[in-house]
């Protein structure tokens, strides 16, 4: 049998990718699973202070790697497992209880970031950091101050999930495929978020002009839009009340951001990043449609806003800035 020797550059030219997920709870483990299913990275590293939990999650995920795109799963309670990661997703944080607002979680989660971020940045200084822990906007702002990383390199998952919820509800009401709905939630990932109705479209048709005549799917009137916006804001509370945590959709949303980074897509996603003179809004992390690629956030797009949308975005920024100040940031 001939001895087949690989070309000397065959392995050295292969660009491998490493994703580190910090926190092996409901969100972190689901995000790792989603990333494996979609083939987002060749190595998925889980890190959690609970050594038994992270070992169990790694074993469970590893036993299924035969059925997903080529990858390996590693894990530890030591930060070194995150070394040289391309993307670090931080899901660790205080768990949101039924009826508890996201901002009520801020203090405990920010204290945790003070403990874990210095070691993470030392282990993976060149990684793009995605914060996926609530309240994500305030935690992202505080984490930027704690870590010293540039705003392009560290940002929050923001309203990527909220936008997905919005598009799903619009598609359901109008009787179209979700992929043909282009609409964004901006501002806080939380109670002060706002839907950007003026720039929303379905298949190129402005949403405010949508007038499909159908037995089951009509136009979106003011009442419909108000109902949809309310459902987007409150759906997380409903899920938490019913099952204790949101994990599937946020895992998929986080994986979507990871893919945009690792494949350098320059996709437009409503992530939460530090704003500097965005329509006069500065010194706050909140979500606006932004170009995301291999180096993180490249640019925030100045989407046309109605007067009401601008007022809502500014109010959201003022609220988030006030919350950050409460915690000394």
TrEMBL record:
Q: Which residues bind beta-D-fructose 1,6-bisphosphate?
A: 167, 182
| Residue ranges of every copy of the Lactate/malate dehydrogenase N-terminal domain listed in the record | 17-156
Activity regulation, free text: Allosterically activated by fructose 1,6-bisphosphate (FBP).
Per the UniProt record, which EC number(s) apply here?
Answer: 1.1.1.27
Q: Which residues carry this modification: Phosphotyrosine?
A: 237
Q: Where in the cell is it found?
A: Cytoplasm
Give the protein's recorded name.
Answer: L-lactate dehydrogenase
- Read off the lineage from the record: Bacteria, Bacillati, Actinomycetota, Actinomycetes, Micrococcales
Name the gene that codes for it.
ldh
């Amino acid at each position: 049998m001939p001895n087949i020797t690989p070309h000397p550059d065959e392995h050295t030219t292969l660009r491998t990718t490493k994703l580190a997920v910090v926190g092996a709870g409901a969100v972190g483990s689901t995000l790792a699973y989603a990333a494996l299913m979609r083939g987002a990275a060749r190595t998925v590293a889980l890190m959690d202070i609970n050594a038994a939990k992270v070992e169990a999650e790694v074993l469970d995920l590893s036993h299924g790697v035969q059925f997903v795109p080529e990858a390996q799963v590693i894990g530890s309670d030591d930060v070194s497992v995150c070394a040289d990661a391309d993307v670090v997703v931080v899901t660790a944080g205080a768990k949101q209880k039924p009826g508890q607002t996201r901002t009520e979680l801020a203090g405990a989660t920010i204290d945790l970031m003070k403990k874990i971020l210095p070691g993470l940045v030392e282990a993976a200084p060149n990684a793009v950091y995605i914060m996926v822990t609530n309240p994500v906007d305030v935690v992202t702002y505080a984490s930027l101050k704690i870590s010293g990383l540039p705003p392009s390199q560290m940002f929050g998952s923001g309203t990527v999930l909220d936008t997905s919820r919005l598009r799903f509800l619009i598609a359901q009401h109008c009787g179209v495929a979700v992929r043909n709905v282009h609409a964004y939630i901006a501002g806080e990932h939380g109670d002060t978020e706002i839907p950007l109705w003026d720039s929303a479209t379905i298949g190129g048709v402005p949403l405010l002009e949508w007038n499909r005549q159908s037995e089951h799917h009509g136009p979106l009137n003011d009442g419909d839009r108000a109902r949809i916006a309310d459902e987007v804001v409150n759906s997380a509370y409903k899920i938490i009340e019913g099952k204790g945590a949101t994990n599937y959709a946020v895992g998929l949303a986080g994986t979507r951001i990871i893919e945009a980074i690792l494949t350098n897509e320059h996709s437009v996603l409503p992530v939460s990043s530090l704003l500097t003179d965005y329509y006069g809004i500065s010194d706050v992390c909140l979500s606006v449609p932004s170009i995301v690629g291999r180096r993180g956030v490249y640019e925030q797009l100045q989407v046309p806003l109605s007067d009401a949308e601008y007022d809502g975005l500014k109010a959201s920024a003022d609220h988030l800035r006030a919350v950050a100040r409460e915690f000394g940031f």
